[in-house]
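User: I need a structural model of EmrB/QacA family drug resistance transporter from Paragemmobacter aquarius for a docking pre-check later this week. Nothing fancy, just the predicted structure tokens so I can convert them on my end. Input:
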Amino acid sequence: MSAAAFAQPAPSVPEVKHRGLITVAIMLATIMQVLDTTIANVALPSMTGDLGASQDTITWVLTSYIVASAIVTPMTGWLADRLGKRELFLISIVGFVATSLACGLAWSLPSMVAFRLMQGVFGAAIVPLSQTFLLDINPREKAGQAMAIWGAGIMVGPIIGPTLGGWLTESYNWRWVFLVNLPVGALALAGCLIYLPRAPRKQRSFDLTGFAMIAIAIGALQLLLDRGGEVDWFASGEIWTYAVLSATGFWMFVVHILNTDKPFLEPAMFRDRNFATGLVFIFVVGIILLASLALLPPMLSRILGYPVITTGMVMAPRGVGTMISMLIVGRLVRKVDPRMLVIAGLLLTALSLYEMTGFTPQMDSIPIIRSGVVQGLGLGLVFVPLSTVAFATIEPRFRADATSLFSLVRNIGSSIGISIVTLMLTRNIQINHTELSAAISPYNPLLWQTSPAAVLGDPAALSRMDQMVNMQASMIGYVDDFWLMMCVTLAAIPLALVLKRPATP
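Assistant: Understood. Predicted structure tokens for EmrB/QacA family drug resistance transporter:
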């Protein structure tokens, strides 16, 4: 590649005191927030009885948090300019801890939904601001290591969330799923109060129209994705309403920011090729990371009969693989072309998904652990170089807005990925069950050999046969989803060539 293709190196940041302690405090807050995206999922059945909710309405505990966080995330840049990045981060931590306490003390479903909504509002800025701080306080040559630390928290958090949530619920009470945030948040707050440096505030007008349009678009999209499975998707007028609102909101937002003097988000950000390509990549990573995490726990529980704690232990090596990969690649990113690391990571991720397509109901835990470690290594190889390259050439004045978009697109990708694989799983199980059941016939000689009692109409034998058909239909449905995710991963590889390698500092 010619030298002209390299971006000019940014000036090194001034020396920051207590960089290590600042990093610890920031990452404590980040992990606390990221854990809450998945830690409450396994506690929903226990909440149902205590809060007087039904199976249909208890899901609003998750939906309210996701929607509120998605709507407020794009405001991070504007709030950071007006309030100051340090001040906004401290407010976010205090608000998140306070609303976590309120969630732990909730007495009814409406109170829980209201507190979770506020928790999402306060937590929205934590992840993008933590990335901004780590980019700000580290010199250019250490950006890869900083993104490795940040990425480890972002990607390992959702993996250990269900395990930690299941252990707290079984050992203590579902309320501890939220109360566990108090000591972590207190440590993070103390560290940030003492060591986090102040940043200058900026006068910046608020584009109410632009924010309203993107808030409607994102909020409606999240409601569509979260509610679709419960109301049979586009067979419901509710989903069509969300779809129209989302499409209209996005369209009007794009038209507005291109034709106003002081838009909510500067279009100039998207002219940076690395950042624009990075948004597409992080969207794909979001699909793969949380979609596979959403599929594996129910598969291990329903088909292999694993309890919650065992499921967590089997999936834990995935997080270990991710952490190992990120620690190594944080150093490699300075010496090896980041694009090659991204391609290698995608190939490893595709390899792990290919191995998952060979899962069977009779397997032991070894294939799950092995494929999980390989996928963790692959995602780590993708995430760190991507997070580094995506922000390597963007102007520092756009950094807070850019990191908020980076987090938002990752979360939207996760929501879309989970919705797609869940929809496909449900429908494929139905199709597979129908096709397999067609072979259960008195005229099938194999049925006479395997279960003569079923052919003769014995109820117990027929029940066992139905259970076997359900298990096989479900397993085939999961395998189909793993094939889909593998194809998405391979299709993303050519995008790595669009990235522009930043100049070596």
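Before docking, keep this in mind: The CA atoms of residues 196 and 273 lie 31 Å apart.
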